[in-house]
Specification:
Aminopeptidase, alpha+beta, 6 helices, binds coenzyme A
Length: about 180
């Protein structure tokens, strides 16, 4: 059944620390090649990937090196957003993905906004950065709506299926107001 959301339903999107409770949904949705191809998820996804990731997340939260969140609509798991590589200089990288059935409903925009609020107010980060493939304009839009700005474009050539492909990555950055 198609899930239809209006703006007020998007406000029901929330983030919560990622725990083992979400492992099976994480494993299922992250196995989708359309999710994996634009973010740092391996494809095919190894069988125990989600639980291993969550174990790292739990350990990282303890030592304050990373903060991983499940994105929920009401109580339903719809994706993941993580602040990783948190340094003593109060910098971090952000990554996120939304399960494919829930794309285009404003979830990433709202969840990233909540994570950046946490980054600024709770752990007092001074800089958050990320990289986005040029073939991923939706993600760039999500970042720009959350006050990330372009700082650089990297060009690289990769070999795929015996062909060389030239691609670009936008580097974007957020700093508090
Ligand atoms: C990219 C991704 C996170 C977006 O999640 P989402 O919940 O669908 O995003 P939202 O609905 O909050 O916002 C998407 C925005 O991009 C816009 N958009 C979508 N497709 C677009 C396109 N082809 N060109 C330009 N803008 C586009 C939408 O219109 C919307 O902007 P608007 O609110 O101003 O209209 C999701 O598609 C995903 O998880 N992809 C795979 C993993 C990934 O790419 N992660 C990010 C790695 S950097």
């Amino acid at each position: 059944m198609e899930l239809i959301l209006n703006t007020s339903q998007v406000t029901q999107v929330e983030i919560t620390p990622l725990t083992s409770k979400y492992a099976s949904h994480f494993q299922y949705y992250a196995s989708d090649v359309l999710v994996a191809r634009s973010c740092p998820l391996p494809h095919p996804l190894p069988p125990n990937y989600a639980q291993d990731f969550i174990n790292q997340a739990l350990q990282g939260r303890k030592n304050q090196s990373r903060y991983d969140f499940a994105i929920l609509h009401q109580t339903m798991f719809v994706g993941v957003c993580s602040l990783v590589n948190v340094t003593q200089k109060q910098q971090a990288e952000v990554t996120y993905w939304i399960a494919r059935p829930f794309w285009g409903k404003g979830y990433a925009t709202k969840a990233l906004g909540d994570v950046m609020f946490f980054a600024e107010k709770e752990i007092k980060l001074k800089k958050v950065y990320t990289g986005v493939w040029n073939k991923n304009p939706a993600s760039r839009r999500v970042l720009e709506k959350n006050k990330f700005h372009w700082i650089n474009t990297l060009h690289q050539t990769t070999k795929y299926n015996k062909k060389f492909i030239r691609d670009s990555i936008w580097e974007l950055e957020w700093t508090p107001n």
